[in-house]
Amino acid sequence: MADQLLLIQACPALTDFQWINVESGDEYPSSDDFDEYRQGVVQDELDKVEELEIAGTQTDSSIALAINNMPRIRSLILAKNGLGPLSFEAIQPSLSTLCRFDVQSHDITSAMIQTILCSCPVLEFFRAGVMIARDAIAEDKDWACMSTLKVLSLSFRFESHETHLQDALFARLARLTRLEQLIMHEPCTEFEGEFGLRLSLEQGFGRLSTLTGMKFLSTIDDETQTLGTEEVEWMRMHWPDLITFCSYTSQGDSAWERILE
Fold this sequence. Notes:
Layout: H1 2-9, E1 16-19, H2 31-40, E2 51-54, H3 60-68, E3 75-78, H4 85-91, E4 100-103, H5 110-119, E5 125-132, H6 133-136, E6 151-158, H7 166-173, E7 181-183, E8 195-196, E9 216-218, E10 226-227, H8 229-238, E11 244-246, E12 248-249, H9 257-260
Helix pairs in contact: 2-3, 3-4
């Protein structure tokens, strides 16, 4: 750890900071390591850090400590962790300038996702787990990133009786006018009958004609998602810049080549 501190102290213009798990199965760096790091590095040397990536599994308090020591974060990447209450509170002062939020674990609540989408006016990249559909379409919770978001990787979960809410969610997504990539996975369900957003013209998929810059669409990790010929042809007509479409069709085959041809 001492060698790392000396290296960091020698880099006053450091802008990207990455912690990596070097010992399989061990939490590294630990909370004690972060304490040593905080004591050994002058705060001014961290003021320029804009990207924080934590590649290993850490405690909520360790992540919060790292964030608190880097007040100008514009990009937060957590490869194996979600956000706990401490790290979520720590990131609040940076939401107004956050451009990338990339949390690959599903260990983040729908309410947290809602807060981030509603509080980040310059957000361009967003990846998280599952958002409850009612939270996504709440009329009093407008997303602040409507005119900036380019990449959205997020699944939405509906309760069994909420089929009618799909159109409202498509209407919300249709306002992401700069969106270029949309990735949805099969949502983890908690109760019988829950389901994810269906890319069906009958359910409101056609509202996304406003996303004229769409280049990439993937639902390949959602085997319950099946698109018919009408939806595929609709995309070909309304998304002229679409390069890759990765999903399952109603015939059960992968549809990679349907837009590329």
